[in-house]
Sequence to fold (258 residues):
Amino acid sequence: MIGTDKYTIETITDVRPWTESLFSFRTTRDRGYRFVPGQFARLGVRDHEHDSTVWRAYSIASAAHDEHLEFFSVVVPGGAFTSRLSKLKEGDPILVERKSYGFLTTDRFEAGKDLWMLATGTGLAPFLSILHDFATWESYDNLILVQSVRTQSELAYEDLIRSFDKSEYYAEFARKLRYVRIVTREPVPGTLRDRVTKLLGSGVLEENVGLRLDHARSRIMLCGNPEMVEDSRKLLNERGFRISRRGDPGHFAVENYW
Ligand code: NAP
Fold:
């Protein structure tokens, strides 16, 4: 198997399980591979039975400056891609399309003061990449990361998110980050319990963060469950926030996850 104009063949270098159905993995990265934090890659795994390749989009969780690529995945029951992917191990090949995709990037916005990043499940991935971009920390006064999961064990990357203040590179900015955890299906001290949409609609999220959503200040990114994205989009529209479009920067940007 050799790479083509369309894709390169990379190697899985690390697989990290978080729960029975959640895992992260790293791959080598072609020197020519470019992306903007928040974008996604298209990955291919070989289906030897049918002599074909199964492709799927995956948001990139690693930083634009990292030598590797990192992805965060859920095993979709019966899913052709993730069931194969979850069996892959270190040293196995994976195809990566040369082109990167997607518009969940901060360059979609005009300048703002507060960047709100609302994620459910594996929708966290693009925000990890965005948080490892110095421009994000330099451009905003406050970064608000909301991670909604079903159970405490699914709070993947919590340690990493909490460690910016210990990082040689990010420590000077770390006070800008407000991290809100939502665990919807079990009580966990220090976390919120309601769905992010409910918290958004009731104003409880803003109260908890200590900042108001405001047209001039706030830029909002939504990623994850498509129903969450759709319901949040409606709530934001009702409050006069506009989605960013090509050539027409607005207040918020979205990415559906499936
Ligand atoms: P999920 O159902 O998306 O739940 C993650 C968090 O989002 C939970 O806190 C959940 O709250 C909340 N949530 C779900 N729907 C919401 C909505 N409409 N509004 C606001 N919040 C909402 O869980 P997941 O583990 O990330 O994914 C669940 C399943 O989705 C997977 O098992 C898989 O089958 C599928 N999935 C498919 C793909 C794909 O590419 N095909 C990718 C990711 C996930 P509640 O506890 O209240 O539901």
About this structure: The chain has a mean pLDDT of 95.
